[in-house]
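User: Structure please.
Assistant: Input sequence and predicted structure:
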Amino acid sequence: MDRIAQLTTRPAGREIAYDPAAAPPSLQVRAAQVLEGNWTGTSTVPSRGLYPHQWSWDSAFIAIGLRHLSPLRAQTELETLLAAQWADGRIPHIVFNPSVPLDAYFPSPDFWRSSTAGRAAGAPRTVQTSGIVQPPVHALAAWLVHLADPGLSRARGFLARAYPRLAAWHGYLLRRRDLGGGGLVSVVHPWEQGMDNSPCWDRPLSRVAPAPARSFRRADLDHGAPEDRPTDLDYGRYVRLATDYRDRAYADGPGDFAVEDPAFNALLIASEYALARIAHELGARGPAREARAERLTAALVERLWEPATGMFLCRDVRAGELIPERGVSGLVPLLLPGLPGDLAATLVRTVCGPHFGLGGTTRLVPSYDLLGDAFDPHRYWRGPAWFNTNWLLERGLRLHGERGRADALRKGMLHTAGASGFAEYVDPYTAQACGVTGFGWSAALTLDLLHDRPARGRNGLTAIKGEDRA
C-alpha cells in the first residue's frame, strides 16, 4: 500500500461499549493528509483554492518532503514539471491544469499564450504554461528524491531521464540570463524570484508603468485578505512586466526590470553541486560542475556581498547598483558549502541580530528586515515568515556548524506548522497563520524535518557536498 494511504486511511475497528476519544493525528499524518488532498494524479498543487495549478519551485520543495512518503510520487512530481520544459531550456513557473476554469487564477493560460507567443522559444504545444521561471532548486530536489530509494530510481531511469533536462535548464539560465555580464543570473520579473512582493523590488519596480486596473481581475483576492496580499499598484506593475515580456515573444534581454538576486543564484549553485552528484551516479564527469559552482560562489560574493549590512543584497542591473534593502533572500547563501567561513559567521550574526531576530524577538526568520520602513508582519513577503526559506536557513545553519541554532529553528518550524494548519506564511512574532492553510510546501518540508532528525547527524544538503551517496 502507498505510504500516504497508510498514513491517511483510518483502520476499521470493532464497536465497543465505551469508545474513548481518539488521539489527535500526529503531525506527520496531518502533513501527509495535506499532500494527499492537494494531489491531482500527476502533481501537487500548492493549495486547492488560491493556487490550483502546478508551480515550479513549489513542486521541487514538495518532492523533497514527498520522498519520505512515496518516492515514486516524488519522482512523478518532478517528471510532470520537466515534461513542460521549453526547447530553449527554461522550466516555466506554472504548468496549467486544463480542467481548471480560466477565471480560477490570474494570469491564466489565455494571458500567457505560451503555445503561440512562446513558439520561437520552443514552448510546448500540448500543455499550456507561463513564460517566466522560478528559482532552480530542481536538481537538488531530484538528487534528494533519488537518495530516498536509489533502487527504484535506477530501475525507472529517473536520473538518466531528468539529467539532460536539468542540464538544459541550468544552461538556459547561465547563457540567456547573465544580463549584468558578471556571471550571475538575473530575474526579469518579481514572480521569477519567488518572493513576489518583497520590498527589495520596490526601487526597480518604480520604473514600471502599471497596467490599467480594468485590464485584469485579481483572482487572489477571492481567497486571501487584501491586507495580506500585494497592493493593486504593485499587481498592475507585475501585469505590465509580464505583458511586455510576452509581447517580446519571451526573448531575454535587458528591460525595465532585471535584478541579480542572492537566493536565486544560491539555489542555482546548490543545484550545480547536485548535478555533479547526479553526473557521478550516471557515470559521467562531475568535477566541471563543481568548479562552476565554485566560480558562481565567487561571483556571488564579488557582486552581491555588502560588508556594511553583513549580508548579500540584490543588484539592480539596469541602475548598476545594489538595492539597500535587507530581505531574507540575502541570507539564503548560508546553505552553500563553499561560502567563505567569515561570511558564513557574519550571516549567522545577522540572522540572529536585530534585523531578523532569530532566537530573540522572532520565532521564525522573517522575509524582510524587522527594522525596515516597509516591514509588515502580515503582508505577502514584506515581513511574514515562510517555511521554505526557513527550511533553507535551518539546513544552512546546520551545514556551518550552528547545531544549537538549527535545532531551535527546526523545533520552531515544527511547532508553527502544526499550530498554524500548515499555513502559507505566518506572522514572525506570533506565528499567526496568514494566507491559506494546508499549503503544499509547508506540509512537505515539515515531513522532511520530521524525517531528518538532528540526532542522526545528517543534513538534507550534505548531498550536494558528495557526503551522502546512494
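Confidence is low (pLDDT under 50) at residues 10-20, 455-459, 466-470.
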